[in-house]
Write a structure and sequence with these properties.
It is built from ten helices and four strands. The protein has 241 residues and is of the alpha+beta class. The protein has a single domain, classed as Transposase IS200-like (Alpha-Beta Plaits), CATH 3.30.70. It has a four-stranded antiparallel sheet with strand order 2-3-1-4. The chain is globular. It holds the Pfam family Y1_Tnp. This is Transposase. It comes from Litoribrevibacter euphylliae. InterPro entries: Transposase_17, Transposase_17_sf.
Length: 241
């Protein structure tokens, strides 16, 4: 069966996940992280894609990016993936694939989910119990978004810029968002949308994406879903509006 084309639109952010094959490491040394970020910057500049958040874990990566053209992110990931596999295989005297199939992606509703997904990405090392606070992890955009470290790869998104009138105010307000935990059900939403390659957003945003692409943006409800707790909760909320 042919793979369905990705949902992608200009200037709409996407949450990207790419994992190492069989969850195996794809970064061993500091130089590996540096090479990946250097080439990510090179290719995002070449294909006019903005990077708003990122984290490089030992066996996978999360990226929050927005393309100027609809196929920009695909071009970035293809070029970056090929280059990094060649680098990695040469460095560690290995052959074969590095990545677990093609990357996963989800369109993000900026108004309702952008800052949440950015936090979700930068909190990955904390959830993995690698560090106690995202500031302790060197290979994420938290260093720039929250602490003001110059990272030429990063482009501030309008949602981030609206946090304050100065970079210092934006960073302070952004840090304050991390005092609140992301609810588990929101984490599940983000994971499901990205792994299933659906759209993360409210109904208005999903309707807009469907109108622009002619594509379904979420799974159709099944008969059993009408008896589920989530369905019942949504009906109660609708009735109370």
């Amino acid at each position: 069966m042919a793979r369905k084309p990705r949902l992608s639109l200009p200037n709409i952010p996407q949450h990207i996940i790419q994992r190492g094959n069989n969850r195996q490491p794809c970064f061993f040394d500091q130089q590996d992280f540096k090479v990946y970020l250097c080439k990510l910057e090179e290719y995002t500049q070449k294909y006019q894609v903005s990077v708003h958040a990122f984290v490089l874990m030992t066996n996978h990566v999360h990226l929050l990016m927005a393309p100027t053209e609809s196929n920009g992110i695909s071009k970035v990931m293809q070029s970056l993936g090929r280059y990094y596999v060649r680098y990695f295989n040469h460095t560690y005297k290995r052959t074969g694939t590095l990545w677990e199939g093609r990357y996963k992606s989800s369109l993000i509703d900026s108004d309702n989910y952008f800052l949440t997904v950015s936090r979700y990405i930068e909190l990955n090392p904390v959830r993995a119990a690698m560090v106690q606070h995202p500031a302790e992890y060197p290979w994420s955009s938290y260093q720039g978004n929250a602490l003001g470290k110059p990272i030429s790869l990063l482009t501030p998104h309008p949602c981030y810029l609206q946090l304050g009138h100065t970079p210092a105010a934006q960073q302070q307000r952004y840090r304050s968002l991390f005092t609140h935990q992301i609810p588990n059900w929101t984490i599940d939403q983000i994971n499901t949308a990205t792994n299933k390659e659906w759209v993360l957003g409210n109904h208005r945003f999903k309707d807009y994406i469907e109108q622009q692409t002619g594509r379904q943006t979420e799974p159709k409800p099944k008969g059993g879903d009408r008896r589920s707790a989530n369905w019942q909760r949504s009906q109660e909320l609708a009735q109370n509006r």
